[in-house]
Task: structure prediction
Amino acid sequence: MTLLPRQSVTAYVAIGANLGDARQRAREAFDALALLPDTQLTNSSHIYRTAPHETQGPDFFNAVARIETGLTAPDLLDALQAIENQAGRLRPYLHAPRTLDLDLLFYGDAQVLSPRLTVPHPRWRERAFVLFPLADVWPERVSSEDLMRVAGQGIERVPEDAPGVA
Result:
């Protein structure tokens, strides 16, 4: 019996961290995504620094990865949560500071609404820390109106050679 190759889907994953060496953790997340089975990292955004949104704590370092994956959306979610757990992610309360947060923003053109997963991510247009890095890897998806709507949230692109923040 000949096995047919699994069809690949383009997915976008938001990356965020604000505990420990958060900038380095965001960089390492790109590597971890590239190592997922049946998955290839095809583009990565710049890293951005933002103040916490709807919460307190240290500044966040955020990015977005574009991947091609043969994983199903639920399997990809499981893999993302495993990466978070390996990074020491705890969930003591809603919007708690975190060592690593990986959110599935888009999974092809799929629309998923389940108790575990909603795709597209329901608040992707409300957050500068998603829109600016998403514009790096999928500029056609982010409009100038989207960016203007979140302009007051305060976001800065981190220079490539900037030192990490612990």
